[in-house]
Amino acid sequence: MNKKEESKQLIKSLLENIGEDVNRPGLLDTPKRCVNMYEELLSQTNVDPKHEINTFFESDNEEPILVKDIQFYSLCEHHMLPFFGVCHIAYIPNNKKITGLSKLARLVESASKRLQIQEDMTLMIAKAMEEQLNPKGVYVIIEAEHMCMAMRGIRKLGSKTVTSKKTGVFLEDKDLVRDIEYKIKL
Fold this sequence. Notes:
Pathway: Cofactor biosynthesis; 7,8-dihydroneopterin triphosphate biosynthesis; 7,8-dihydroneopterin triphosphate from GTP: step 1/1
Helix content: 40-55%
Low-confidence stretches: none
Shape: elongated
Number of helices: 7
Protein name: GTP cyclohydrolase 1
Structural class: alpha+beta
Family: Belongs to the GTP cyclohydrolase I family.
GO molecular function: GTP cyclohydrolase I activity
Number of strands: 7
Strand content: 25-35%
Pfam family, one: GTP_cyclohydroI
Order of helices and strands: HHEEEEHEHEHEHH
Largest sheet: 5 strands, mixed
Radius of gyration: 20 Å
Distance between the termini: 54 Å
């Protein structure tokens, strides 16, 4: 039996163990659909997202570049439930090196498709930016709603978790940080 078939059997066993009738019409294809869903949602497991930043340009711009409200969804490694929200990425070019704006969205997409905690996703994105662009500084902010808090346990629908990572000049220049945070709120 291949891994996909094993996974389908595991989903079928889970359904049976919680008391479901796996032969009822609505559940006949559920194991297959679940396996396909997890393959899609976790497709970047063990893939370094920095490789999404693979196109470079030159620019004389020395001011911050901010791409905000990059939507994403991911899965919490604790409950395998979704968390979703937006990521904001700001960086200041170094040695005229910039990347395409879509590469930042691709970076977030790649970083999100794995089991993880939001805190680690934030660090992963900042690290990829540092490694690929060697900017003067990076500022990554993620705002997300976690279904493990909304659907179970405390049941606080609508609460958001905000994580951030600053490097380089963003650690030193409070005015620069305030400027980025103001632009994010616009």
